Amino acid sequence: MSGHSKWATTHRQKELVDAKRGAAFTKLANLITMAAKRGGDPSANPSLRTAVEKARAASMPKDNIERAIKKGTGELGGDQIEELYYEAIGPGNSQFVIKCVTDNKNRSAGNVRHIFTKNGGAFGNVLWNFEQKGVIMVENSQLEAKKISFDDLELELIDADADDLLKEAEGITIYTKIDKLQNLVAFLETKGLKAESAEIEYVAKEKQELSGAEKNTVDKIMEDLEDNEDVSDYCTNII
Questions:
Q1: 130-203 — its CATH code?
Q2: Which of 59, 93, 185, 234 is the most exposed place for a label (fewest CB within 10 A)?
Q3: CATH superfamily of 5-73
Q4: What is the CA radius of gyration of the chain?
């Protein structure tokens, strides 16, 4: 995902929960609400299940979680939460697809645009270089606890319709077709493995590396995106 990997982004989001709990709860509630629009039963909705688990890990009150689910399923009124995507180009032709979950699209657009313009970037057409995939992350600690080797799991995942796997220091990232995402999550659960995240994401077809000042600026853009309350996720072509 980001230049310091999707795992680093995930860990940073956990740190932000502790540092800015109120803003983090808002972001988590919006994620739950959007996921619940695809079904309010976490057992049948991997995205909702992951969002709820993240909220629980952040010590978000149960009432807040239930209210966010009901808002997504239409049981509660209130401001309409929207899922919006923005495309942007940063230094060194770095490309970003940014997902916002917000009740104010004008605020979200202005904030995301400002993050890029102040760092030498701008909104621009980049979606041609991305495709949507199901992306599942599993921590290495889970494999170790179950005494499952990566090589054995890789073969089984390929048989279970995984398109590709990426092994990193923190864990494995599994890529699959969108319609296979739920089946793969269910398969991992039969192995006693719980996904750190299971989402539909934009994945870059062609990736690139940056160095020096350009990399530092892109890292700053990523940090600003992660700090923004409306930004729920982002994808980039930088490795």
A1: 3.30.70.980
A2: 59
A3: Integrase, N-terminal zinc-binding domain (1.10.10.200)
A4: 18
Tell me if domain 82-129+205-236 and domain 130-203 are identical in fold. Answer: yes
pLDDT at 19 over 60: no
pLDDT value for 59: 87
Identify the H or E element spanning 158.
helix 150-159
Contact 25, 31 (CB under 8 A): no
Domain edges within the chain: 5-73, 82-129+205-236, 130-203
Give the pTM.
Answer: 0.77
**Digit-coded pLDDT (tens) for 147-191:** 888 888 888 999 888 999 888 888 899 999 999 998 898 899 999
Distance CA 122, CA 187 (A): 41
Burial-class residue 160 by CB neighbours within 10 Å (0-12, 13-18, 19+).
middle
Contact 25, 60 (CB under 8 A): yes
Per-residue pLDDT, 20 = 58
Query: Can you tell me the distance from the alpha carbon of 155 to that of 174, in angstroms, rounded to the nearest whole number?
Result: 12
Q: What is the DSSP string of 170-204?
A: SEEEEEE-GGGHHHHHHHHHHTT---SEEEEEEEE
Residues in the chain, overall count: 239
Domain 82-129+205-236 grouped into CATH 3.30.70.980: yes
- What are the phi and psi torsion angles at 3 (to 5°)? -60, -25
